[in-house]
Amino acid sequence: MKINTVCIIDDDPICVYGTKVLLNRNSFFGADILVYEDGYEAIVNLTSLLKTEKKLPDVIFLDLNMPVMDGWGFLDELVKLPVKKKPHVVVVSSYFSGKDVKKGKSYGIVDDFISKPLVEEKLMNIFETIMTNSGNVVG
Question: In CA terms, which of 2, 36, 113, 121 is 20 to 30 Å from 128?
């Protein structure tokens, strides 16, 4: 089993590029990478995917600090979407506190918090955890 679609929501082009490179080198990852620069752009596009009966990405890498709509605003809207299977959300941010982690976990869809930059070992751990928890044991 592979993770087919990943969404990166981040306004930092260097972080987006680095994440794309890591994804493309990872054997658990399929093919599609969606990239949005802020939470508003992401929620509008993900909502339109649902209207065309396409599924949401398997995993969303979400920055918290962005213009227009930050990561918290995005999460507020994401949990309202009428889907049975919500994506796995991994917050990848340059700064977060224990309070942020607690708040993120309260959404019920945030799997992990990772400090930027995302590195290969962390990416592998994320994918292995997601696939194991989904019943698709890696190995």
Answer: 36
Cα torsion for 125, 131, 133, 137, to the nearest 10°?
Answer: -100
Question: Can you give the pLDDT at residue 136?
Answer: 43
Given a cut of 70, the residues of the chain with pLDDT beneath it are 1, 27-30, 133-139
Dist. CA 106–CA 124, nearest whole Å:
25
Residue whose token pair is 């917050």: 91
| DSSP string for the chain | --EEEEEEE-S-HHHHHHHHHHHHT-TTEEEEEEEESSHHHHHHHHHHHHHTTPPPPSEEEE-S--SSS-HHHHHHHHTTS--SSPPEEEEEES---HHHHHHHHTTS-EEEEEESSP-HHHHHHHHHHHHHHTT----
Residue 130: CB atoms within 10 Å:
20
Instruction: Give the global pTM.
Output: 0.86
Q: Supply 78's token pair.
A: 């994401």
In degrees and rounded to multiples of 5, residue 4 shows phi and psi of -85, -40
How far apart, in whole angstroms, are the C-alpha atoms of residue 66 and residue 14?
A: 14
